[in-house]
Specification:
Layout (H helix, E strand, L loop, with lengths): L1 H5 L1 H16 L6 H14 L13 H28 L6 H20 L2 H9 L4 H12 L7 H11 L15 H27 L9 H20 L1 H25 L22 H6 L6 H6 L20 H8 L2 H19 L3 H14 L4 H15 L1
Helix pairs in contact: 2-3, 2-4, 2-5, 3-5, 4-5, 4-6, 4-10, 4-11, 5-11, 6-7, 9-11, 10-11
Family: Belongs to the fatty acid desaturase type 1 family. AlkB subfamily.
GO molecular function, one term: metal ion binding
Subcellular location: Cell inner membrane
Length: about 375
């Protein structure tokens, strides 16, 4: 029963945002406040290597579909609050409360919304795929399933993947580069569809039309009820969420390398296996098993403690926005360990070249030179 209940934590997180908008005033910070609560819980959360056991998979799916309803409730509550009044007086309190509202939307658009969208886009039925597109539009990327399913899962850990962050890259240029490349891949898919169907780029029969129609329908609906400012803030939150999503992408494969076309091995992704990370991410952080078999449901994924591990997701997310901290305390030490303990000889050669391009030390050469130096000293 515990396994069935654990994922309702994601529902509670969104409900905190809904309640904050209903209550108004300073409570409008409640949604983003869950970030700090979860980060604190994650800091004391133990590694969780247990298997999920569901006798009734449809019952296990209930919080996934509930989430889609709650996200609509979140934006309905925001629109209502903007129309009814914020519940504070004065310029400074108003600005601060609105900042809290946008921050709450951005955070909840990303977590737990992105993990739910990710799980649903991997399903085969039309309802799940359709809902994935709708809630992906909430973070301004309705057709993320196209580059994710048909490029990322084929080319991950290589330069051919738009989501790949090479060594030495900081999160800020990566967020823009990743956004640009994923949109370019959507354009390629749109042109291929046009060639097959004869539909124009902006035809309702093509991807591009629905990409922007879904994106703009949300701020339009919010703005019609809550007013122009509500609509504008919704659009701001959507776009900000898009870049925050790319920051999360930045972490997941950072600096890892793989020989193009080679089979997926346990060492080809980073993993975050605390109880909080696995739960709030719908097992997306049980990462390598998802890449080994992308068709597995979230509850079927097997954690691999022997695969490369990163610190908890919240530590990594915050550190990524502080590049010196990210490189010194997380990226370089973990990648050095990966190169020395996990990488194949071919991958070590790719990693060595990646380190050279990044201006990083050649720790593989240092290790190879150590025995020779010891023998010379003897």
């Amino acid at each position: 029963m515990t396994d069935y209940l654990r994922y309702y934590l994601c529902s509670l997180v969104v409900l905190a945002g809904v309640a904050g908008f209903v209550l108004g005033g300073w409570w409008m910070w409640a949604g983003v406040g869950t970030f700090f609560v979860l980060a604190g819980l994650d800091a004391v959360s133990r590694p969780d290597h247990s298997l999920r056991r569901f006798r009734y998979p449809r019952l296990a799916d209930a919080p996934l579909y509930l989430h889609c309803v709650l996200m609509m409730a979140l934006y309905a509550a925001f629109a209502w609050r903007m129309q009814a009044g914020l519940g504070v007086q004065g310029t400074v309190p108003t600005v601060l409360v609105l900042a809290g509202a946008v921050a709450s939307l951005v955070w909840l658009n990303a977590v737990p919304n992105v993990p739910v969208a990710h799980e649903l886009m991997h399903r085969k039925d039309w309802l799940s795929r359709g809902l994935a597109k709708f809630i992906s539009a909430i973070f301004a990327d309705a057709h993320r399933d196209i580059p994710h399913l048909y490029t990322h899962h084929i080319h991950f850990d290589t330069e051919a993947d738009a989501d790949y962050a090479p060594r030495g890259t900081s999160v800020y240029p990566f967020m823009w580069r990743c956004t640009k490349r994923n949109f370019e891949e959507l354009l390629v898919a749109t042109r291929k569809r046009r060639d097959v169907t004869g539909a124009g780029l902006w035809s309702p029969r093509n991807f591009l039309f629905w990409e922007f129609a879904l994106l703009l329908s949300i701020p339009l609906a919010v703005g019609l009820y809550g007013g122009p400012l509500a609509g504008a803030l919704t659009l701001l939150a959507q776009i900000s969420s898009k870049f925050f999503l790319e920051a999360l992408n930045y972490i997941q494969h950072y600096g890892l390398v793989r020989v193009p076309g080679s089979p997926t091995r346990l060492h080809h992704t980073w993993n975050h296996l605390t109880w909080i990370d696995r739960t709030i991410g719908y097992e997306i952080t049980t990462h390598v098993d998802h890449h080994i078999d992308p068709d597995l449901r979230f509850d079927q994924l097997v954690p691999h403690p022997d695969a490369p591990q990163m610190p908890n997701l919240f530590v990594c997310a915050v550190s990524a926005f502080i590049p010196p901290l990210w490189f010194a305390r997380i990226a370089k030490p973990l990648l050095k360990d990966w190169d020395l303990r996990f990488a194949s000889p071919q991958e070590q050669q790719i990693a060595r070249e990646a380190n050279r391009k990044a201006g990083w030390p050649d720790w593989l050469d240092e290790v190879e030179a150590a025995p020779a130096a010891a023998m010379a000293g003897a």
